[in-house]
Amino acid sequence: RDVAAALTGIGWDHSFEFVTLEGLSLDMAQVKTMTAVEVDGPTHYLKCKRKQVAKNGRTKFKSRILHQLGWTVIHIPFYEWNVLNDAGARDAYLLSKI
After folding, report:
1. How far, in Å, CA of 98 to CA of 81, rounded?
2. What are the tens digits of pLDDT across the range 24-41?
3. Quick one: average pLDDT of 66-71?
4. Can you give the pLDDT at residue 60?
5. Cα–Cα distance between 57 and 76 in angstroms, integer?
6. R_g of the chain, CA atoms, integer Å
7. 6 backbone dihedrals φ, ψ, rounded to 5°
8. Can you say how many angstroms the Cα of residue 69 is from the centroid of all Cα atoms in its chain?
9. How far apart are CA 34 and CA 31, in angstroms?
10. If you count Cβ atoms within 10 Å of the first and of the last residue's Cβ in the chain, which end, N or C, has fewer?
């Protein structure tokens, strides 16, 4: 919900928890531009011993399907979002992503 509120704050019009016609659930979506924003929490990643980050198969597969359907998918990794300490930093981060 923090990301959705921040997107609203920067003026990015979107639907929250949008479901596509194909039944895919998106965290946030701007349907008119077919842009999805997915907030990827820890369960979206494999556990690696060397502090490397790798998306799991389910996350990769969903992104691939969305791309094939014409969607642009923007991923917001939890480990990037959680270190942003103030609204200005969050706004700048989101503006760089969208």
Report:
1. 14
2. 999 999 999 999 999 998
3. 97
4. 95
5. 17
6. 14
7. -65, -40
8. 17
9. 5
10. N
* pLDDT confidence of residue 1: 80
Mode of pairing for the β-strands spanning 72-77 and 35-40: parallel
Residues in the chain: 98
**Which tokens sit at 56?**
């799991």
Q: H or E segment at 81? A: helix 78-81
Q: Which of 46, 21, 51 is CA-nearest to residue 34?
A: 21
Q: Is the pLDDT reported for residue 22 higher than 90? A: yes
pTM for this structure?
0.87
Among 5-14, 44-53, 79-88, the least confident range: 44-53
Task: For residues 2 and 64, give the distance between their C-alpha atoms in angstroms, rounded to a whole number.
Answer: 26
Closest by CA to 25, choosing from 39, 7, 12, is: 39
